[in-house]
Amino acid sequence: MRSGERGFVLVALLFLVVGLGVAMSALGTVWHTAAQREKEKDLLFAGEEYRRAIAGFWRASPAGQERLPKEIGELLLDPRFPYKIRHLRKAYRDPMTGSEEWGLVRDEAGGIAGVYSLSESKPFRQAGFAKDQADFEKAANYRDWVFLFKPEPAAGKPAQAVVPKTP
Q1: What is the pTM of this model?
Q2: How many CB atoms are closer than 10 A to CB 73?
Q3: Helix, strand, coil: what percent of the chain each, to 5?
Q4: Buried b / exposed e along 132-142 (16+ C-beta atoms within 10 A)
């Protein structure tokens, strides 16, 4: 092989390595984006499960004694009844942080009115939410996605005020 040919092969090999590096970088970015979008779906599911469970806890309360759960464990096994009542099948992890810890929104009596992720990351999804998630549009981070239960007023009496503490 002539020295000119060896130089051409070396340059071609160098371009091939650079091209593979750029392709792998792009693939990593696509994979990361897909993984975060999947975590967003999981966050929406888990958050809605908590909101639904808090609503179920409220509705299962005896008339005139409505209250919100004091801790997540009360959603897993309601202590107010002598038999098993589960408003939530399992405690979900926060998909964005991987932690079992959630941010909790409490009412004035200390009951849990809602949950939110503790992640400071910026969401990809900015629109197209369900009606009760309309506040999630244009959120600065996942902490702003608050899954809050708002009690309906009972016939003839005003609704219990749920005052969320700022996350």
Answers
A1: 0.76
A2: 12
A3: 45, 5, 50
A4: ebeebeebebb
69-111 pLDDT, tens digit each? 999 999 999 998 889 999 999 999 999 999 999 999 999 989 9
Cβ(124)–Cβ(144) below 8 Å:
no
Which residues are paired to 115 by β-bridges? Answer: 104, 147
C-alpha triplet 92, 127, 104: angle, nearest 5°: 30
For the chain, the domains span: 36-167
Cα(99)–Cα(73) distance, integer angstroms: 16
User: What is the rounded distance in angstroms from the CA atom of residue 150 to the CA atom of residue 113?
Assistant: 7
The two structure tokens encoding residue 116: 């939110």
**Cα 145–chain centre separation:** 7
Residues in the chain: 167
Beta bridge partners of 112: 106
